[in-house]
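Exercise 7 asks you to align residues with tokens for two separate proteins.
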Amino acid sequence: MNQTGTFRASTRVLVINPGSTSTKLALYDNGKPTWMAGAHHPVKELNQFHSAAEQYEYRMDFIRKKLSESGIDIDFDAVIARGGLLKPLEGGIYRVNEKMKHDLRNADMDHACNLGGLLADELAKECHCQAFIADPVVVDELDEVARYTGIPEIRRKSVFHALNSKAVSRRYASSKGKAYEELNLIVAHIGGGISVSAHRHGRVIDVNNALDGEGPFSTERAGTLPAGQLVDLCFSGRYSKTQIKKMIHGRGGMTAYLGTNDMITIAAEAEKGEEPFKTLLEAMVYTVAKQIGAMYVALDGNVDAIILTGGIAHSTFCMEMLKKKTNYLAPVTVTPGENEIESLAYNALGALRGELEIKMYE
């Protein structure tokens, strides 16, 4: 549907998913994928930027190049992108507006997902269609007790892979003939960032902050750190605030130890028993398992299933390690990949057809 409110023979939706180290694209025609493209951006290229916000032109140039190489005109009925680090809000689909763009440009936390709505808006303006985001990472459904930290000035935030976590939960529930709202689930999204969320009857009542230094360490994030040692490092005079932030997310985790975020290589070397790959991978999986245990407690031990998902879930070696540490808690199922592209396309088509409410970001 274009801005005149009329449908044409085919409804074309462009989907943009900017991740911390990748940009993925897809074109959906009447709800069916007709084209997909993307790339894992090398660390050396990303390191030329001091922040994800500075990557805007780099990512836009990449998108335009991919569209041009495939002969795809910038002529869509909607452009939808992965949402960014906005203020906490309920799940759903939102139209990109000026308030949203302002908040994306001035987000408190730096991540490539903040570029999503901005990239979508630029392309949508070119073809006079609507730009959307859906289920951004700041979906906040936490129980109140989960917000406390022990320091009144610091409250825990809900920042996680909401889009994929909810999508795989609904898919699992459907496979069991149930509604998402009927089940208690633990979802571990394992990728460039790792979030482990506790889903109680359709609400995510607790989850680690997957971006800003909490939970497992990942390919490029440090995860939970000993607070006293971190404070000492901050005041050592050796590092700036920006450098410390980069240690926490962007250049922490596997990248800090190995100089690479390439999990395909890391897992392959670990499986061969090569060090330090083997020990580091075991350590990362160990931290994920511990976080799953924490969410098991958050759900009072009443868990219907543990769902392992995200890019790293493609690694059978990694998943077998993790299942051995957690399958005594509840049945474990693996749903590899992010599933975010499909979910975004579904949301955009539903909005265009009037089947889903388009919410206003305020």
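Second protein for Exercise 7:
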Amino acid sequence: MLSQILAVVIFVAMFLEIVREKFPRYLVTLVAGALTLVVVFLLVMGSVPAVLEALSLQSMADTSFWYTGKTMVNEMNTGINWSTIIFISGMMIMVEGMSEAGFFDWLCLRLAKVVNYRPLALMICFMILSAVLSMFIDSITVILFLAVASVRLAHLLHFDPIPLILSEIFTANLGGAATMSGDPPNIIIGTALGLTFEDFLQNTGMIALVSMVIIVPYFYLCFRKELQTVDETARQRAMLLDPREAIVSRTKFLISVIIFLVTVTLLITHAMTGLTVAMVGVIAAILTLGANKNPIQLIQRVDWQTILFFIGLFVTVSGLEQTGVLEKMANGIANITGGDLRVMVIVIIWLSAVSSAFVDNITFAATMVPIINSLSATMGIELNILAWTLSMGTDIGGSATPIGASANVAGTAIAAREGHTISWGRYCKYSVPASIIVVGVSMVIILLRY
């Protein structure tokens, strides 16, 4: 069908433009989304309902969008996943409030002081911090402030910050894989399939924990020689710094910490309270804006381009779904695997990992969610197993290259801005083996456990 061909052409063109990075990503997906609505749905299909389904505005009018009661509702819908959009927006607003209060600067300096400003100990400490924070805060945001902190400390102590940034990026993606709120692909998978924070923690969380035990020593062995040399004079100067000076206002600081703890509590208990992640995001935003004297200024600092990127992406993927392209892809995977769940897990996790290494894992996750949903329905296979497989494949595969995940792009961009350019060769030298190790571990655990 012409509509299928056009939907695929638009999607592939969008992919190529994202990889080429000639234009801002949000503009690329918005243009692709607009072409899908106008050319595919209106001109070729002549279907206004298809446009409405892609925009999915009606989903927010449903009470279950905000509150599900005691029963979790499968939120799978064609088109824009507004749960993801609203949740990420709310978390971004909350993080901006925390940053304004000096929370992240204080935390980094406090941890650096605990390890006596020794570069190798700093790397291990920041890796663990990156993983833990990414369980609750978007990994992109975690890398934005950790990479800046790493560069500042590197300049202060006279060492190369690139080992820190590379290890932080990887563990941010790994920590993000542990929960529903950590990595954008997990937010997409969770909200689309009606999974909870606890569901992810019990499944991908366990895999991430085992992987962390392996990956921390891996990066230690990779960079121990580079970071062993210490400038004692610079270190002694740094020891005199007081982390409390990073706190702009004690009141703001305390309020931001309380809001963060409340949000984390709501996320962990949302399956029990019935509050959806969209509602949790709204609550986090309202509390943050209400506690801020300049809420408009805070809103302006949020990275709205990322939100627009998501919106355009969801509409474009809707073109593939509504024209039946994704159903054909699901049937193709089913034929290749012969309906064998073990083979399906192996195919999906490595397909996800390799694809996400070269194409932004957010885009790939959004494309694959309806495919695994279709596979589950047609083959009678447990959907959750495919969800954990897709989650680990996209999150960890995306760590392999500088363009695989948004956190990678953010971290390498900050390093380059500060005069520490990370080449593809140097990045992949350490991250590709780490990704292969973790994807392999994930596959074995999934096959053995399920």
